[in-house]
Amino acid sequence: MVTQRTEVLKKALAEAIDEGLLMLGESGRDVIYFRLKQSYALKREDVSSNPEIFVSCLREIFGSGAEVIERAVIKKLYDKLGIEFKEKKDFGFMEYLNEARKFLKEG
Amino acid sequence: MLGICKVGLIIAVGLTLLYAFQGFYPDFIYVFSNAFPPVIAGAAVVTSGLSLERYWRRAKGPFPTVWFYFTLGLFLWLIGEAIWAGYTLILSVELPYPSIADAFWIGGYIPFFIGLYVYVKLFSHALTKKALAITMLVAAVLTVLVSVALLTPVLEAEEDLTKIVMDFAYPILDLALLSTALLGLIIFWKGKLRKSWLLINAAILMNACADILFSYTTAKDLYYCGHMVDVLFDLAYLFFLMAFYVHTKEF
Q1: Nearest CA of chain B to the CA of A75: how many Å?
Q2: Most exposed of A52, B33, B124, B147 (fewest Cβ within 10 Å)?
Q3: What's the pLDDT band for B51 if we cut at 50, 70, 90?
């Protein structure tokens, strides 16, 4: 059951990252995946298993601007999981992700 | 990355020294100050165009748009530089200001501003209201200060209306670009794109200083081709070129 939930979240997150990064355009998305592979040895299919590395990579390139991309990814993820997205003060990517995990666990 | 910065620094110092010691070669500096800007502007267009080509290959999202407008803006400035060079070096016009070249220079600000705006707007949610307010306040104060500083010399010079409008338009348009670019710098300050945005800001700042001094020196009848002001225009193109190169390397 736990594995199944984890797999659902991983799949949804992988899709959300793929779609969320499209705000940078396809070429921009490719650059991010290239960077993840080059600097963090993280393949495209493994990004959803290492969300903290994904966030680090975005912050390293975009600084505060990364928040906008993270927010786009989280909104896509919540949409896929059927969770209503509500802005929360001092909530970052990992906090929203943990909330999604909790939602799946409880649901 | 350090390589381009070192090369840029060497060129910047070299250009400044070249203009500083112009007393030893006045004829050369006249030709150089008119012929070099189209060359360096052309190099900046090529660098921006390479970024455009890179993003254009998969033309979805905002970045092809951003780079299209940057390249278009720089291209219009390049035409302005080429026309100025044509007037001074071929037609021997002493000071072609205002001229048709100004139409291209002024026109170049529009796509350049759109490019900056689209880029910054994409990440604008990362800006705090405080940062936005401070930037706008700084821009407004600078605009008032520059306008007030230019008012007396420009009006005293009793120039025609077109020149008066140009004298104010360039610095004000520069400040509009600078305020938008400053927002970009704030957004990307903690990221690798900071270097590129620092250079964009430096380039626009150089242009702003150059345009303010150009308006002042032409109003006071102090400007001549090869004046120290010209080095600022050259440095602006150099910094744009470096900014776009660094951006392509980082993202």
Answers
A1: 14
A2: A52
A3: confident
Nearest CA in chain B to A34: B251
Distance between start and end Cα atoms, chain A: 12
Cα end-to-end span (Å), chain B: 13
Q: Give the domain range for residue A102.
A: 2-106
Q: What's the burial of B77, exposed, middle or buried (CB within 10 Å: 0-12/13-18/19+)? A: buried
The minimal CB distance from A65 to the residues B55, B58, B126 is found for B126
**pLDDT of the residue at B2:** 67
Which residues form the domain of B242? 2-250
Q: Using CA atoms, how far apart are residues B150 and B145, in angstroms rounded to an integer?
A: 9
| Residues of A with Cβ-Cβ distance to B190 under 8 angstroms | 59, 63-64
| Confidence check on the interface: ipTM exceeds 0.85, yes or no | yes
Q: Give how many domains chain A has, as a whole number.
A: 1
Domain CATH for A97 = 1.10.1200.200
Which residues from chain A sit within 8 angstroms of residue B60, using beta carbons? Answer: 22, 25-26
Residues of B in contact with A30 (CB under 8 A): 58
pLDDT of B180 reads 97
Q: Give the helix/strand (H/E) hosting B156.
A: helix B129-156
Per-chain mean pLDDT for chain A: 93
| Cα separation, A84 vs A1, whole angstroms | 24
d(Cα A92, Cα A55) in Å, to the nearest integer?
10
Task: Select from B58, B63, B125 the Cβ nearest to the Cβ of A67.
Answer: B125
The whole-angstrom separation of Cα A76 and Cα A21 is: 10
Q: In chain B, how many domains are there?
A: 1
- If interface means Cβ-Cβ distance under 8 Å, which residues of chain B face chain A? 54-55, 57-64, 122-127, 186-194, 250-251
Measured CA to CA, the distance from residue B22 to residue B229 in angstroms comes to 13
Contact A28 B63 (CB under 8 A): yes
pLDDT (0 to 100) of residue B250 = 87
